[in-house]
């Protein structure tokens, strides 16, 4: 027989958003569990950036500190994967364990789909980068390229010009409109035509980008815009509303269209950095506790009236 453990709130996902939501709720004296499969999106990154007081902290250390803080408040940290969630909420884990929750927070993040080019996966998070705000300052003034692997790549290049004067845009398979070519040229960004064949790596360092014709475009840093795919299977299975782009919609506190379900971080916002996700988790924690309090007040009033009516008849 499968043992079932009950919680006020179960948080699925142990990144900054999920852990912060759990912290707020635990400090509100709620019984909380965090289920984490141990696959953080920022695992390849060496440092967290743009997080006041935590700038430069390795992601693994930030998460370890968060888990340690939660342990002081009695939060159950469960290393597992959620296979399915049933309305109500009953969560079935890959290990066979079952949990029940009055409320649910989904903070499962997203995955980056990278182009199938030799060298890309090996250099991801090192000298093949995505976020200018996360990495731009560290690679400032270096010879940099942007690969046209996504419709937003031109905007990516125009944004990165803020960090370096030596910037090349390689359209690869993305056509460049005349207007975009004008904008790139006006900003001093060199457009290098030709399909990309691979990244050239020498002595474990990026040397540049090799085009299909064999030309080497020497660069020390390459940026790409990956296709971001939310890990939102649980939210989809519960029937949460989505926008025209297919992302689950929430209000400002992370509340979804399904009663009792909140979602925070990259699973609903691809632009959310670590500090943003933490803020979203905090907002969700406040809203969740308030939602639980309202439910408890309503039940208490109903119970009180029931006892009063029963007593008046004796």
UniProtKB/TrEMBL annotation:
One Pfam family here: Pyr_redox_2
InterPro entries linked to this entry: FAD/NAD-bd_sf, FAD/NAD-binding_dom, Ferredoxin-NADP_redctase_2
GO molecular function: thioredoxin-disulfide reductase (NADPH) activity
Domain FAD/NAD(P)-binding: 7-279
Gene3D superfamilies from the UniProt entry: FAD/NAD(P)-binding domain
Name of the featured protein: NAD(P)/FAD-dependent oxidoreductase
Catalytic activity, as annotated: [thioredoxin]-dithiol + NADP(+) = [thioredoxin]-disulfide + NADPH + H(+)
Swiss-Prot/TrEMBL keywords: Flavoprotein, Membrane, Oxidoreductase, Transmembrane, Transmembrane helix
Record field: transmembrane: 6-26
């Amino acid at each position: 027989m499968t043992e079932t453990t009950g919680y006020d709130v179960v948080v699925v996902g142990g990144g900054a958003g999920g852990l912060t939501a759990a912290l707020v709720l635990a400090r509100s004296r709620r019984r909380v569990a965090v289920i984490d499969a141990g696959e953080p999106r920022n695992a390849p990154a060496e440092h967290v950036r743009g997080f006041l007081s935590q700038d430069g902290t390795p992601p693994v250390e930030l998460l370890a500190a968060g888990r340690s803080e939660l342990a002081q408040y009695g939060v159950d940290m469960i290393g597992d994967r959620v296979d399915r969630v049933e309305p109500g909420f009953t969560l079935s884990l890959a290990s066979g364990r079952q949990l029940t929750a009055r409320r649910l927070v989904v903070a499962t993040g997203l995955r980056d789909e990278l182009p199938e080019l030799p060298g890309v996966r090996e250099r991801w998070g090192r000298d093949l980068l995505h976020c200018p705000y996360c990495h731009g300052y560290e690679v400032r003034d270096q010879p940099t390229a942007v690969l046209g692997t996504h419709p937003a790549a031109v905007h990516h290049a125009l944004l990165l010009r803020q960090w370096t004067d030596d910037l090349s845009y390689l359209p690869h398979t993305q056509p460049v409109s005349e207007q975009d070519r004008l904008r790139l040229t006006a900003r001093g960004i060199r457009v290098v035509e030709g399909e990309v064949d691979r990244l050239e790596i020498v002595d474990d360092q990026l040397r540049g980008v090799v085009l299909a014709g064999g030309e080497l475009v020497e660069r020390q840093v390459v940026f790409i815009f990956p296709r971001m795919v939310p890990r939102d299977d649980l939210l989809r299975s519960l029937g949460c509303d989505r926008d025209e782009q297919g992302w689950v919609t929430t209000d400002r506190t992370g509340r979804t269209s399904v009663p009792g379900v909140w979602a925070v971080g990259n699973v609903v916002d691809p632009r959310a950095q670590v500090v943003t996700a933490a803020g979203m988790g905090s907002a969700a924690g406040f809203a969740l506790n308030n939602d639980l309090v309202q439910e408890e007040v309503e039940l208490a009033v109903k119970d009180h009236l029931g006892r009063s009516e029963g007593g008046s008849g004796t």
